[in-house]
Design the sequence.
């Protein structure tokens, strides 16, 4: 309490005493005990009021000791249990947190990590993934702007996340405590297998395999890929102490349509400690993309032969040549190429109004543009009887599908009638035309989409010269053929709109995130935020079903099905208000990434320690780790002189006291007739 405060309190005593004397004794003739009592009440009330205004505060100083944090993070993934180190990890943790000297020097913080990171002092070693990157990220946030050591009890085998070696703050030392048997065992392992999730029927799809060997002798192994009881690929692989890895690139045939399950395995005559990592299942969805393309023409032209050849480069496409009067042949076609249509094409257009096939219209000198204006309204033609040569200009902003400029500006001109061509509605232009050096701003190759039906327009004949020019420029027809294939692919793809759209994979690996997303649209094809979506999932083998609600996110609904065991499942997503439903299936492949290891990753953990100027210790060196932490003089407790200021009197109770004193004085005076 300051000198000024003491002076004010003394002055308040004098003022309170003076006012009380003036009011009750200065002119009073009767100085009875009652007057003394009332004067005392008035004195207390005035003094309390003055004390409330002064609000005296007492300052108190105390010494506060802040200890350096010591973060102890324990690997809670199932790989610790697979390496039979779960009990040892708990024993090491207990030894650290119960050490009296460590408890005195540090503020011990206990954490566990697998795929996630959280504060915990109990561990079950059931985590499906290991992410040491999460440890680095969270400790930076928790102990921000502090210098502190970290002890990581782990085998160092990370299965997800960024490389942890360079993710920890180099200012803060990390002391890995390595658990697991570091003895080198003979072990063959499929380290990684890369394959596309989808392949086209009757094609071949690549499989890239990375194999790893652990041992101190030369070894030979057999690598096979099988499907059911059939072996589809087999290779012999040699390893040695100096050659511990091998990579294989294989081509497998896509002979069957649908989801195909394959089994990759590596084996040798030598017995291994861990054979679980010798096998890896994978799946590929084989898609039947086979389609028939009908080229309808009333004339013969080199363009037709070149189109047929370019389209059939894709083995999944078959081209048939049809005359305009032979409409029956169009039944098997999925896309129509209408070459220079005229009045004889009326039956073709009439038939396609009900069939709804997508079309590729190519015009030229024999096209009846008045007839074409009657049959479609995407482009409006006002053409003369003269012909003109049109060069092409690539429009880089085109975005209906991915396409590169294959040198269109260098291609020979196309011939078409001279006139004006204007677009109407939703039309995207890939190539615009120019006459010599003058741009016409008119389309040369354009795409339209109207009520789910797609149409492409190539406005000019002699495109066969384009293919030849592309071969001259690139020594190959490939770029031009890919260009034509992308046009056909765009037209062969259905653009019909569905009210319920569900996104999912055909297969998942055990331990992977299993999320199914869905969107529900109203009649105006607007995302419906009030939809009620549920999903029923049934195990095909056990017939057990589970029901879940889909939760609304940002323009989609989703459900997380993590926890399902390996097997085949059917599922149905249903919108309850409209009873709209979508049914499909998926398969969960048996694969536990945490069982792939036979040894701790000592090298990685040592790199981490070196990166942070720490030191790695093995499980029998826990005492050395404790001594290192205790002897490190960087980590000192910080003493702070903390000054706290507290009011002498709680102002609420002081107000109550003042009110009580004045009330009592008033009642006494009233009762005794002094008012």
Sequence:
């Amino acid at each position: 309490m300051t000198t000024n405060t003491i002076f004010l309190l003394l002055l308040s005593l004098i003022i309170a005493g003076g006012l009380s004397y003036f009011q009750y004794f200065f002119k009073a003739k009767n100085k009875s005990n009652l007057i003394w009592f009332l004067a005392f009440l008035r004195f207390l009330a005035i003094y309390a009021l003055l004390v409330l205004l002064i609000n005296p505060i007492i300052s108190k100083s105390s010494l506060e000791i802040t200890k350096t944090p010591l973060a102890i993070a324990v690997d809670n993934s199932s790989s610790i249990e697979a390496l039979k180190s779960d009990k040892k990890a708990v024993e090491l943790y207990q030894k650290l947190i119960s050490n009296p000297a460590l408890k005195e020097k540090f503020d011990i913080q206990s954490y566990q990590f697998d795929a996630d990171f959280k504060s915990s002092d109990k561990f079950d070693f059931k985590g499906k993934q290991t992410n040491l990157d999460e440890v680095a990220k969270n400790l930076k946030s928790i102990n921000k702007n502090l210098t502190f050591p970290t002890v990581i009890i782990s085998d160092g085998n990370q299965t997800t996340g960024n490389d942890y070696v360079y993710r920890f703050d180099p200012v803060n030392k990390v002391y890995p405590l390595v658990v697991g048997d570091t003895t080198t065992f003979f072990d063959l392992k499929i380290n990684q297998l890369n394959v596309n999730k989808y392949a086209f029927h009757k094609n071949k799809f690549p499989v890239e395999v990375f194999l790893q060997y652990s041992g101190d002798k030369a070894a030979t192994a057999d690598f096979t890929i099988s499907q059911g009881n059939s072996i589809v690929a087999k290779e012999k692989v040699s390893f040695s102490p100096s050659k511990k890895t091998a990579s294989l690139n294989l081509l497998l045939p896509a002979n069957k349509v649908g989801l195909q399950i394959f089994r990759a395995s590596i084996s040798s005559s030598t017995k291994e400690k861990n054979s679980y990592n010798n096998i890896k299942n994978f799946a590929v969805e084989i898609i039947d993309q086979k389609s028939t393309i009908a080229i309808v023409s009333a004339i013969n032209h080199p363009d037709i032969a070149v189109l047929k050849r370019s389209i059939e480069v894709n083995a999944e496409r078959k081209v048939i040549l049809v005359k305009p009067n032979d409409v029956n042949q169009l039944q098997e076609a999925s896309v129509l190429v209408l070459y220079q249509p005229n009045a004889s094409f009326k039956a073709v257009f009439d038939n396609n109004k009900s069939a709804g096939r997508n079309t590729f219209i190519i015009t030229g000198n024999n096209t009846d543009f008045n007839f074409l204006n009657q049959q479609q309204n995407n482009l409006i033609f006002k053409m003369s009887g003269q012909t003109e040569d049109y060069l092409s200009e690539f429009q880089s902003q085109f975005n209906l599908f991915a396409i590169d400029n294959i040198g269109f500006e260098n291609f020979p001109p196309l011939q078409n009638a001279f006139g004006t061509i204007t677009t109407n509605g939703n039309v995207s232009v890939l190539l615009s035309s120019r006459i010599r050096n003058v741009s016409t701003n008119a389309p040369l190759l354009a795409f339209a989409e109207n009520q789910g039906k797609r149409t492409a327009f190539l406005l000019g004949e002699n495109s066969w010269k384009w293919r030849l020019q592309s071969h001259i420029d690139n020594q190959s027809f490939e770029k031009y053929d890919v260009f034509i294939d992308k046009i056909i692919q765009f037209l062969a793809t259905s653009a019909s709109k569905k009210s319920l759209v569900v996104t999912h994979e055909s297969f998942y690996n055990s331990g992977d995130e299993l999320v199914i997303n869905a969107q529900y649209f109203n009649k105006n094809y607007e995302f419906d935020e009030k939809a009620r979506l549920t999903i029923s999932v049934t195990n095909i083998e056990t017939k057990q079903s589970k029901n879940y609600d889909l939760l609304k996110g940002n323009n989609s609904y989703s459900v997380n099905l993590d926890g399902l065991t390996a097997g085949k499942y059917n599922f149905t997503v249903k919108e309850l208000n409209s009873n709209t439903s979508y049914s499909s299936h998926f398969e969960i492949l048996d694969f536990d990434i945490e069982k792939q290891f036979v040894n701790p990753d000592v090298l990685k953990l040592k790199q981490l320690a070196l990166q942070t100027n720490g030191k790695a210790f093995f499980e029998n060196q826990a005492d050395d780790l404790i001594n290192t932490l205790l002897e490190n003089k960087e980590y000192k407790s910080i003493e702070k002189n903390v000054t706290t200021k507290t009011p002498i009197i709680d102002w609420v109770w002081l107000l109550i006291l003042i009110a009580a004193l004045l009330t009592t004085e008033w009642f006494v005076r009233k009762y005794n007739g002094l008012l």
User: Anything to note?
Assistant: The longest strand covers residues 379-394. The chain has a mean pLDDT of 87. The first helix runs from residue 3 to 24.
